[in-house]
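Human: I wish I could look at a protein chain and see how it folds. This is the protein in question:
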Amino acid sequence: MSAQRVCAVSDLQQDMPLRVEPDGVPITVIKDSEGVIHAIGDTCTHGDISLSEGFVEGETVECWAHGSAFSLLTGKPQNLPAYEPVPVYIVEIDGDDVLIDPTVIKEV
């Protein structure tokens, strides 16, 4: 499979997660305070909660339900109660299009 358009860069607001579902795979897309766009698995590994409803701080997104924060760079949890990472996806930018291949997980 190849990368597909999931949203426009202009759709993203700084530190505001956006849930997308390319091929039914739930992914959270986030433009951080530096303008870098990240894509991580949308489901908290602790409680099956959407991370797109969470809070972004620096290079982490925090699950609103139990407070686990995940690195936008590695997907690793930064604190308990989560102990399993979420997948991190490769983001490509083509003009104003944000492209993600939901079958390719970034090696971190």
About this structure: The chain has a mean pLDDT of 96. The longest strand covers residues 97-105. Strands lie at 4-8, 18-20, 27-31, 37-41, 55-57, 60-62, 69-71, 88-94, 97-105. The chain has no helices and nine strands.
